[in-house]
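Checked the freezer inventory, then went back to the computational side. Two predictions to log before the end of the day. The first one is the construct we discussed on Monday; recording sequence and tokens without edits.
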Amino acid sequence: MVQLVEDVLLLIFIELQNDPASLYSCILVNKTWCRIAVPILWKYFSYAYKNPYNHKRESREKLYNVIAHFLPNSSKDKLAKNDIKLPLNLISNMLLFNYMEFFTRLTSALIEDMARLLIKENSNYKINLVENEIYNLIFNRCKNIRHFNWNTQAQLYLCPNAEEFFSNIRSLEFNFLFITPVMLLKLAVICQNITDLKIHDCDEDSLDLVLFIKMQNNLRSLSLNFNNKEEQYIQLSNIIGQKAVLLKKISLGPVITLIRPTFFPSLTYLQYLFLNNNDCDLYESVNWQEWEHYINMTTFPYLQYLKTLYLLSSIECLIIERSGEKILEIDVYHPLKTQDYPTENKKLIKMISLRCPKIIKLTLDVDPDNLEEISNLLSNCSLLEKIYFTTKNYIYPNGDKLLKIMSNKSPATLREFSFVDKWNFSLKGLESFLEDWKNKNQFPIKFTHYYKEFPKSFCWVFVKKM
């Protein structure tokens, strides 16, 4: 058998990093393959098990049993003193690797699940004791963890080696409802190198949270999820303004209007913008003029990804207008329907056509009166690969006209076309589209119909054209 050099093996295994079954097969080939593949497989575990409940109990128990071999088990340790014997299934041979070194990310959910599956009795005391020992193990042995999801009320900053552990964290995610002011103040002292910060269920304009954000020296990505529809987050707005010049990614929701947009002119290097207004019931009372004012003062020369939910088309149009023609992806979901929505929608389509020559993926609501603008967009945006069209019309628009435009104007790069059931295609129109596409020298297209199933007669057309 020809031996592959280790560098080549490493490249191959990295390509398989999201395919645990194949990696496991590689481990069984020989010692060299095993030594190279095992770290990659365990890196996959640390990522894939961020929500352990998505995996079978049997798989989780096997993983946790290996980790349990690293827990202290002498008679003098806490576990033994409380009649806790781990691991449950002792591996007779010595472990070949220090598997704890291979973890790169960790979630509190995994620790909680591990403790509950390792303790086969209904004892909260023992479960909490095992949780604490697992955290002690991780803070002591897992030197390569850079991503941590904190969803526990445990005072983790009190654990041995907590300062060293948190000083190495670069990506931190936590639920604000679990974090006390004391925890935030302690974290602000020992954890100052976060580049990616995600905060869920933020229900107050917390000065302690502001201080924690302020202490981050290299913040590049910020995600704030609010859990209060009434309070204005003035202090958080101000600290975003202070950090804005370094931010490359910002995500706000589900009520963006709780934040004042005064920081927008400072978002000089922004590449990714997600504005989610899904939970705002008071659209008419929002001061959209303030948003338009500050966005109009802003340029987004590096913006590549724009995603919005329940925003005015005029706001979306303004952001695109102020961009630097580098946008690769636009996802506009459920735009607010104004009195003159068809006109606003037309302006938005025109702006995308004019300012987004490099766009690859587009999700957009289309008013049926604006199909001519869609035709122009498809001609100008020649790198499009994926399109998803929705429509707000309650009278189902003529989908055949859209199919004709897609057939005649789609760029050669297009390989995926999706749409909602409100587009009313005829059997003849669909058959004509598929026949035209088949005769073109283009990529095979993925044709996806969302929400309602196609009639059986439509499905038969797809079978015939395959």
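The second is the one RB wanted added to the comparison set:
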Amino acid sequence: MHPLITTTVLLLLTPPSLTLQSLYSFTLPDITGKEIDFSTFKGKTILVVNVASQCGQTDAHYKSLKRLHDILSFSPSTPDGGSSFEILAFPSNDFGDQEPWEEKEIEEFVRGHFKAEFLLFPKTIVKGEEIHPFWKWIAGWFP
């Protein structure tokens, strides 16, 4: 996918530094409205990616994300028995209006068509003046 369409940030969170600690203060709703406490990601490797349903590379990229999740989510587990790898996917309409759908349609598409089980968040503004605070935090890593 073109870098303007999908921005991918791999955050290796072991061991956490003081700078990374602020990540753990985020609590965001997933696409169903369930609150996700980012402190649960302590000690895990996470892939944060923004996605779009109407991009020319959507099919290949969702299939790749699903495969990556399927393979790495079976990596050595955390002490609580969970996976040590997570994908956090944030749909965004910020790049060429390639995510026109609402949350319910996005979830049905990703879960139904691709059978993806990784974390999916609501459509999010990832750049510009109205950038979501989480993405503003990420952008701060790349001045």
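For RB: Helices lie at 18-21, 58-72, 103-114, 133-139. The longest strand covers residues 45-51. Let me know if you want it refolded.
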